[in-house]
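Notes from the 1:1 (GR / supervisor)

We went over the backlog. Supervisor wanted to see one worked example end to end before approving the batch request, so GR pasted a single chain during the call. The sequence is below; no edits were made to it. Supervisor asked that the structure be written out right there so they could see what the output format looks like.
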Amino acid sequence: MAGSSWIRKMFEKGLELKRQHGVDAVCDFSLGNPDVPPPAKTKSALEAIAAEAVKPLGLGYCPNAGIPAVREAIAAYLARQQQVPVAASNVVMTVGAAGALVSFFRAVIEPGDEVICPSPYFVEYGSYCGHFGGVLKPVSSIADEGFRPDIAAIEAAITPKTRALLVNSPNNPTGCIYSAEDVRQLAALVDKTNAARGEGVRPLFLLSDEPYRAFAYDGATVPPMLPLTPYAVVLGSFSKTLSLAGERIGYVAVNPAMPDGDTLVSAVTLTNRTLGFVNAPVIGQRLATALLDETVDLEIYDRRRKLMAKVLSDAGIEFVMPRGAFYFFPKAPGGDDIAFVDALQDELILAVPGRGFGMAGFVRLSCSVDEKIIARSAEGFKRAVQRLRRP
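Structure output shown during the call:
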């Protein structure tokens, strides 16, 4: 509990402020809970699922790796997205992207193994690998270059104990999308490391956590990861893309070119079961499959992004315009993220300190809120900044 995340702390603070001042008075930018409605087709898809659900075993156990037809559909979807011939046998359906990561780490991590990730990062990565004795090693990104990964620093951080390089693009909390050249260099680093280790030595994996892949703006593209190295593994979910966060449906996809990749898939299938997940939710699997060619209305998120940029600019707050996801990671005026968060709370605005994501001096703001809330926060941001800048 001592390591409980700042996101959760701010969520609890938000509940307290809403009780005191009323829900409509609080501008809560603390949680990445997708609020845009699911695609319109969701209703008819659920009706079709309901018709099948009343049949014997309609909602019964399924194979631990997922419903075979679902794995086939997800594999075809990923083959188009990742530009490699993904097969159903390369895919395991999981309880969200979080369940995918936990199952993967249980399959490959031994106590003392290291997982490197660029910082700032989603804070629960540390718990996901730490449950099994893994050690998260954050490496600071280059903030002045839009939070791009510091390839040289990552290479310097690799040791014989390093088991995985975990990247998240589009990124939570920065909204950064890694360039094709940056991910190529990361993959080359993985291949270089594995070549030096030689055959028979536990390899270094490149893990790509991609729940925000669809959220790319201003013509930005998210490079595919699987073609870059045989040891690439893509993990994703439909929580954000389809606003199905509560359905907890995700996947692990192993590069079909990975040596002994079938063993890794079998291991993740086993840990998916023995961690108590058993199988990914059946309704969620069928629903995601029915909506594979759909997304939520991304224009809504883009409008919010542009409005938040105006609010921050008008308040004199420095930030890098996010190219993906639905977060902002602006600098804290004066450099103290806790002081800025406290000043915002006085204005009934909730943000999360950057130190909660491994990079102090910034704050995270989630744009998964109505535009009216973003607009209403404008004067509060200005007053908070003015208060911090008074001599």
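Supervisor's comment: The chain has 13 helices and twelve strands.
Batch request approved.
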